[in-house]
Amino acid sequence: MSMLDEAWAVSPSVALRPEPFGALAYHFGNRRLTFLKRPELVRVVTSLSTHADVRQALVGAGVPAEQHDAYAAALAQLAATDMIRPRHKPEDDR
Amino acid sequence: MTPTGLMTPAAPVRRPSGGALVDQFEYGLDAPICLTWELTYACNLACAHCLSSSGRRDPRELTTAQCEAVIDELQRMQVFYVNVGGGEPTIRPDFWHLLEYAVDHQVGVKFSTNGVRITPERARLLAGTDYVDVQVSLDGATLEVNDYVRGPGSYDTALRALRNLRDAGFEDAKISVVCTRENIGQLDEFKAIADEYGATLRLTRLRPSGRGADVWDQLHPLPHQQRELYDWLLAHGDKVLTGDSFFHLAPFGEPLPGLNLCGAGRVVCLIDPVGDVYACPFAIHEHFHAGNVLTDGGFAQVWRNSPLFTELRSPQTGGACAKCEFFDSCRGGCMAAKFFTGLPLDGPDPECVQGYGEHALGDARVIPAAGQDHSRRTPTRNQPVMLKLLTRPPVSACAESPLADFDPTQS
Fold it and tell me: CB burial class (10 A; 0-12, 13-18, 19+) of residue B75?
């Protein structure tokens, strides 16, 4: 199953700070700083938790279908540093 | 000419959308990502190269309540962590309170210390606090090299602090080294010390700022040492922190990890102990003064609207350096290093690896007067004494003997 069909959310220890180019994400646990370089990506990331899966979040943010795979790759990078995590994972598993 | 003497285009340029992150950073951010806050000018040491000419407390230093208000504002601005320094920040009586206050308000703290107050008890407290990083300064891997610039006893103090941190279970302390002519040959030894204490090595550049202006000629790495440092950094890149210090070395070859950009006023700034805001920690001088957190409407106001920062966020043309084929990799180097050695800000860095800086240092130049000086007025017992055995013959006979050329039979 692709990430596009899964339910994801911003990690509980992550804060997003709006910036002119997009946003800056800081993880208070692993102290990593990441930059979300496009406003569209910020909209996708912040709306993950209110959509049933990633694809719906992408559609909701107005990302054209042909760009979905590219966005999935960007989201996978965010997942690698725990900026976002799958929603089925228990919240206390930190 | 603009206030800072940088070459900027006449018309304001709009921020481009998309593109490389470094290009976005040139236009500045809504809040800094690397904010240094020096809590006091007081210090138990008197290091020869102190960036902030510290020693004596300033009577105007921010009170506890004023510091808390700054932290509240940083929290509102979502400044996620702050680099606290001084002076020696831990000798402020309210230091531990402010540390806790910051952490409780989602502002993580990384503080720099010479180790004097890192007792076993404090080390345990630190080990039990999230979002705190400790950075112990050490400028020589051996006592002789360290104490030569940092003063007698400072090596033992630093190593005792590292031992206390390790024994308390504090993980991944940082050992912060200012790279000098004296210690470039010790990089492997520094790494061994870091490994021994479960710490990470952090190397930074010697700046001619503060008292550093007085010893820079004598201490800054020689050209062949710059190469040695660059090669060492490339070999150890990801395991060593540099605070993006060495982007002036990038023209040696491939860029080093980091932004490779002068972040002054764009992503970096300094709040000093009296609340003055400067473009970067190496530029405590009225030339780089953006405002004051108490008198200019708070830190956010200064960061977002000061004319100095607005100017620093305009694209710069690079002046004489723009013609150099390596301009894209070093972008002219460090503004503070140029300013405090009396070089034009739109020309080469004094340590330009292409040799243009050395050439410029040979031209007529005026070294700016110090912006402030909190050095102790009288010598202290742990003041460094930077003397070396005389290697040149005396300049005149009377330098050898007060009775030189005196012949009692002739008087």
Answer: middle
Name the residue of chain A whose CA is nearest to B25's CA.
A21
Closest approach of chain A CAs to the CA of B133, in angstroms? 10
B30 vs A: CB within 8 A = yes
CATH code assigned at A56: 3.90.930.70
Give contacts of B 47-106 with A, CB under 8 A.
78, 80-81, 106
Indicate whether A80 belongs to any domain: yes
Per-residue pLDDT of B286-305, as tens digits, reads 999 999 999 999 999 999 99
Residue B90 near residue B158, CB atoms below 8 Å: no
Residue B180 tokens, joined: 């000098």
Of B17, B21, B80, the CB nearest to A26: B80
Asked if A21's CB is within 8 angstroms of B15's CB, the reply is yes
In order of A29, B210, B300, B304, B354, the CA distances from B75 in angstroms are: 17, 30, 11, 16, 43
Out of A17, A31, A35, the one facing B78 most closely (by C-beta) is A17
What does DSSP say about strands B268-271 and B276-278: parallel, antiparallel, or unpaired? antiparallel
**Nearest of B62, B82, B19 to residue B292 by alpha carbon:** B62
Question: Is there a domain that residue A61 lies in?
Answer: yes
How would you class B262 by CB atoms within 10 Å of its CB: exposed for 0-12, middle for 13-18, buried for 19 or more? buried
pTM, entire model: 0.89
Q: pLDDT tens digits, residue range B307-352?
A: 999 999 987 777 888 889 998 888 889 999 999 999 999 899 999 9
Residue A17 to residue B31, Cβ atoms within 8 A: yes
A73 lies in some domain:
yes
| Structural domains counted in chain A | 1
**Element containing residue A38 per DSSP (H, E):** none
Question: What range does the domain containing A16 cover?
Answer: 3-85
Specify if A7 maps to a domain.
Answer: yes
| Interatomic CA distance for residues B89 and B43, integer angstroms | 8
